User: Which sequence fits this backbone?
């Protein structure tokens, strides 16, 4: 084996082309085994194996600095930077994170988990390098899907004015998490179709030099391209065309489904978990049911059709479904525009991603008093999704938005109830936040209310107040305490802001 002997990128500097190809296969084998047992990001990492080998063959990390976007594609990078144990030893699978992590390695420069940031971060490194008078290469690695984020455009715009070394590797697999949406993707297609020779070139039009690699899964072609730009004195884009899921047939054929995966059977691809609904699915299906009765309801997503459960809506009402790409700011303001014309827009978004659109919630929705509904998925702690995806702050910042109403249902039935209330009884910004995963609650649902539920036990001076999934834990604890004659009252908030009268 080659992979088990690699402790740093220096170990592959003298590999022959055949040895690097063999290494690539070992890396894919290790990826497939770990993902089948542990789950994680699948398609992006299979696509970047050869490019990662070529990057570390040509550049000298950590002196030369590789900055990944989102870092969904960093597993191969980790394998070549002293962390192969996290893919070869089942007992150490959890010793490494699924994202770029400076605490793990000197080869990781930022904690990454959100999109469209690599160019801006790398520009900061490049400017700091120039101020210090050093001469290392700075490389930003960004996927075509991440280019739709506004910050990516802002970084590219500034990059053209950089008078020094700066390399942007655009990994183009014609996919975001879901299918790409937006006008620039027609130009990326034109560049792919013409081998990078089309006169109309997005990157050249922004003042950047340009190199095209037709086969971004061919190690030698990648090495040649990277060597041609190493130590460049001006900003340049290296546009590589890769295949998402490369080497794993199911991921190649079903790119969106296999962007991220739960543990699965390698032969069939069947997940080793039950097929029960999640909060996301229940939300998506209820929105379909409501939209069947009301043609004003529209659904908006920022490249998260399946992740938010909106694939149900997209199939049923394609003309009322809008995927705006990875652009949460635009999604909120676009929803405000819909609302101003009497439509009922519902923007489904992960809690941590919503943070990027705070200004738009305040200025474009609240000031105008426009009625926009947010389906806030992955609210609360998200476990294996990692620290960058925890939805811990939405209640804090949403409660500062004038006129906002926030619901936190504790079960599927309450989710349906709160969604209807947000659509039809509230005005302005109405938010329904719900957790990752399934409803496993056991509390008594006979007295559901859209604002609060008061569960009285025996006479007591103790009142516990809670909301969302946490309430069920409190309910279980109260039941156990009651068995020991330790009684308490429980108050479950469904609408957590503003508090209902009588609470």
Assistant:
């Amino acid at each position: 084996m080659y992979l088990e002997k690699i402790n740093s990128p220096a170990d592959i500097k003298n590999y022959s082309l055949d040895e690097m190809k063999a290494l690539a296969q070992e890396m894919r084998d290790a990826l497939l085994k770990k993902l089948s047992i542990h789950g994680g990001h699948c398609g992006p990492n299979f696509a970047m194996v050869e490019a990662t080998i070529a990057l570390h063959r040509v550049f000298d990390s950590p002196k030369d600095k590789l900055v990944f976007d989102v870092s969904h594609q960093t597993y191969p990078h980790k394998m070549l930077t002293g962390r192969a144990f996290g893919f070869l030893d089942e007992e150490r699978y959890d010793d490494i994170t699924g994202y770029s992590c400076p605490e793990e390695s000197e080869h990781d420069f930022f904690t990454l988990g959100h999109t469209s940031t690599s160019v801006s971060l790398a520009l900061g490194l490049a400017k700091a390098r120039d101020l210090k008078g050093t001469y290392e290469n700075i490389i930003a690695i960004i996927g075509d899907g991440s280019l739709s984020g506004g910050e990516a455009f802002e970084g590219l715009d500034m990059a053209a004015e950089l008078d020094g070394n700066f390399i942007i590797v655009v990994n183009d697999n014609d996919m975001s998490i879901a299918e790409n949406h937006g006008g620039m993707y027609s130009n990326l297609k034109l560049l792919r179709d013409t081998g990078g020779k089309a006169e109309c070139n997005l990157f050249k039009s922004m003042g950047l030099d340009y190199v095209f690699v037709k086969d971004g899964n061919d190690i030698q072609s990648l090495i040649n391209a990277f060597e041609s730009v190493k130590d460049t004195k001006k900003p340049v884009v290296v546009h590589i065309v890769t295949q998402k899921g490369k080497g794993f047939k199911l991921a190649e054929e079903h790119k969106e489904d296999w962007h991220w995966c739960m543990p699965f059977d390698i032969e069939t691809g069947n997940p080793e978990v039950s097929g029960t609904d999640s909060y996301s699915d229940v939300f998506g299906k209820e929105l379909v049911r409501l939209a069947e009765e009301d043609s004003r309801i529209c659904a908006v997503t920022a490249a998260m059709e399946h992740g938010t459960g909106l694939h149900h809506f997209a199939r049923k009402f394609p003309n009322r479904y809008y995927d705006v790409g990875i652009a949460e700011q635009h999604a909120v303001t676009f929803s405000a525009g819909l609302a101003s014309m009497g439509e009922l827009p519902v923007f489904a978004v992960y809690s941590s991603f919503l943070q990027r659109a705070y200004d738009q919630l305040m200025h474009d929705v609240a000031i105008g008093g426009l009625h926009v509904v947010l389906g806030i998925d992955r609210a609360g702690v998200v476990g294996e999704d990692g620290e960058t995806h925890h939805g811990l702050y939405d209640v804090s910042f949403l409660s500062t938005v004038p006129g906002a109403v926030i619901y936190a249902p504790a079960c599927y039935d309450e989710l349906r109830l709160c969604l209807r209330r947000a659509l039809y009884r509230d005005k302005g910004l109405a938010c329904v936040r719900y957790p990752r995963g399934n409803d496993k609650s056991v509390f008594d649902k006979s007295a559901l209310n859209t604002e609060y539920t008061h569960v009285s036990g025996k006479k007591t001076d103790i009142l516990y107040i809670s909301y969302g999934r946490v309430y069920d834990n409190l309910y279980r604890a109260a039941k156990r305490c009651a068995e020991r004659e330790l009684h308490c009252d429980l108050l479950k908030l469904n609408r957590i802001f503003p508090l209902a009268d009588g609470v």
Observations:
- The longest strand covers residues 166-172.
